[in-house]
Amino acid sequence: MRDDLAVFRDVGRVHALAEAIARLDPGRPVRLMHVCGTHENALCQFGLRDLLPAWLGLVAGPGCPVCVCPASDLDLAARLAMDPRVVLATFGDVVRVPARTSLAAVRARGADVRIVYGASDAVALARALPAREVVFFAVGFETTACTTAAALQADPPANFSVLCSHRLVPPALDALLGLPGVAPEGFLLPGHVITVTGLSAYRDLASRRPIAMAVGGFEPVDLLLALKDLVEQVADGRPRVGNDYPRAVRDGGNPAAIAAIAQVFEARDAAWRGIGTIPASGLGLRAAFAGRDAAARFGLVPDPEVPDTTPGCRCGDVLLGRLEPEACPLFGSGCTPDVPVGPCMVAFEGTCAARYRHRRL
Ligand code: SF4
Fold first, then answer.
1. Ligand 1: does its nearest atom lie under 6 Å from the Cβ of 315?
2. Residue 231 has pLDDT above 80, yes or no
3. Which domains does the chain have, with CATH numbers?
4. Which of 78, 128, 130, 253 is the most buried (most CB within 10 A)?
C-alpha cells in the first residue's frame, strides 16, 4: 500500500505533470473550481498551487458539507439537543460551527450532545440508551448520505431518528453555473462523491450546460492528472466528463449505495449557507421513513429568523469562489480555528481552515 501511495506522490511525475500543464498555455487566464474540502486540503498540504502556471487559477467552491449546512438547521439541532429526552449525535466538526448558538454552547449548558463517526455509531448509541431518544444530525454529501440510508434500512431501534441536512453535489454545480461572476470554465469533481454516485448525473449536467469536468483523486499525481485533463478540455473547446480517478471511480458508481439513497431519500429544495436555496439539492426522508424524521417527531420547524451569517464573516463569498480566504479581513486575526467566526474556519474541510493550517509562517 505504501508503494502504491508513493507512485501517486512521486516528485518526478508531479513535476512532469505540472510542466505538461504549463505547456498547454492557451494565452489567456483559465479559471477552474474544485468543490471538495479534501481536495483543498491536498492542494494546500502538497503546495500544488505553487506548481501551477500563473494563467491557471483554481478556486475552492462549496465543497465543505459542514460549511454549507444552513444556520437554521444548526439552530434546529441545538433546540432539539436542549430537549431533556434527546441525545443529539453528530460529527465532531458540526458541534463547533457557530450559528445563532452552537451545539458546543448548548452542550456547555447541559444538553447531551455526543460526537460520533457516523450513523451506525448513533444507532449503537440508541441501542445502548433505550430510555433516551437518540437523534442523528445527518450532515454531508452523497458520501455520508448513503451511510445514513443504510442505517435507516437496517431497522434501527424505535428511539432512533434523523435530523436530515444532507446535500447533493450536481444541483449545486448547476446553480453555480447560473450565478454571475462565479461560473468557472471547468469543475474538478470530488473522487469520493463520484465513487458513490457514478458519472451519470454529471453527464446529464454536461449535456445541458457544456463545461469541462474531470474527476480527481486526492494524491498529487491524481490532482494534476485531472487538472491537465480540464485544461486540455478548455483548450480544445470540447468539454466532457473525464474520469481521472479510475482506480476508485466506476461509471455506474456504487450500485448498492445509489439504491440505498434512492430508497430512503427524495430530493428537495434546500438552503446552502451563505448561498441560498438551490432546487432539488437536499435530501428528505421518503414517506416510508417519515416516522424517523426527528423534526416531525419532536414538532420542531426551522426558524426563518435565524441569521445565516455571522457579522463580518465572508464565508458566502469564500464558498462561491469569489473571495480567497486570506482576503477576508478577519482571516488569521479575528478568526482562527481556535476562535472561528464562520463555518469555513471550523470544519477540517473548510477552505479557511485548510488555508490557515497550511499557511506560510
Ligand atoms: S476567515 Fe473566518 S470570518 Fe473570514 S470568511 Fe473565513 S470563516 Fe468567515
1. yes
2. yes
3. 2-62+177-243 (3.40.50.11750), 66-168+253-297 (3.40.50.11740)
4. 78
